[in-house]
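Worked example

This section walks through a single chain of length 377. The input is the sequence exactly as stored; nothing has been trimmed or padded.
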Amino acid sequence: MPKPQRLVWLCPEFTPYHDTFFEALAADGSFDLRVIIMMGPTQTHPFAPQSQRPYSWQMASPRAWIDWPLLRSLLDEAPDSWFMVASYYTPTLIAALFTLAWAKRPFLYWTDTPLPQEILWNRRQAEPRPWWLRLGRRFLLRWIFAHAHRSLATGQFGVTAIHKLGCPEEKSVIFPYWTAVGAPPARLQSPESPPLRTLLGVGQLIYRKGWDIAIQALEIARRSRDDLRLLLIGEGEERALLEQQVQAAGLSQHVHFLGWKQPAEIARLLGTADALIHTARWEPYGVVILEAMAAGLAVLGSDASGAVVDRVVSGRSGFIHTVGDAAQLAQQILQLADDAPRLRRMQQEARQTAEAWQATRGVELLKTLIGSATSPP
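Given that input, the structure is written out below as tokens.
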């Protein structure tokens, strides 16, 4: 049996989808995995790794601006080790990139879709980034693209963005997020196929997520079907404005704000809904799309969401609406509210898509990327 390939993965923060992929890597046995997490739980990612994981993991020093002992430990890794550096969001990650390049160590760079100039992460009004920040980011990214063996982006949105930022086409690879698929959902094993009644939205209550559009679409759809309801999971600065919108529209009994939920509770709530609604004005990827499809949910998503564009076939596993078009979204909701067999077919198609994109597929892709570079010519 060949010796496992040493792989050191530098990760900005810990999330359930990271854990899913790390567990798949550990189970495969082809990699000797060491995970280094840069930051502990944050407001937007309040997850913490348990002490016992099926892979080796550690936290970077929370007190040091740059964790120098950690950088030295990278250089102490065996000469044939490979490295995955996910983003450049902390000083230690940037220092790690320069350290690996200086030492001529092979590394892959993995990024979400870079933030467009016209989009702000949370706020409503976009402001031009300072020229020096735009220039600095461009130079840093071009340097990374030049030194990385390959640059991985989470979807087609991401690959298109890094091309524009200077990554050569031959060095860019689509490498999405991965989520646990699990057993077939109960809804698809039931002989009953009820029509759409419950929509579920999952995400921060911020302007970028577009929940005001979802509420407006529900208001329009309920003019024809008064038995529709919307559940929203998440917290954020827009909650008070959204609650005012719900009250003004007379939807207080039909839109329910459930607050932030742990992953296990989100999974349970996915099992109680009929479709996922995802109205983001811009979403670099959207892991909840993958989770919903694994749960056998049809997806009603905007064309500004990376995972929607990558995974949803409009009319087959859900519907894709033009971002911001509440009237179009309302019509799509009504189509499924009046056609239970079609909703069931979409739910089945969504599940089949999830089964085709299990974490083991990502492991094989990673093995191919590293194996093609280490195999003798």
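What to look for: The mean pLDDT is 92.
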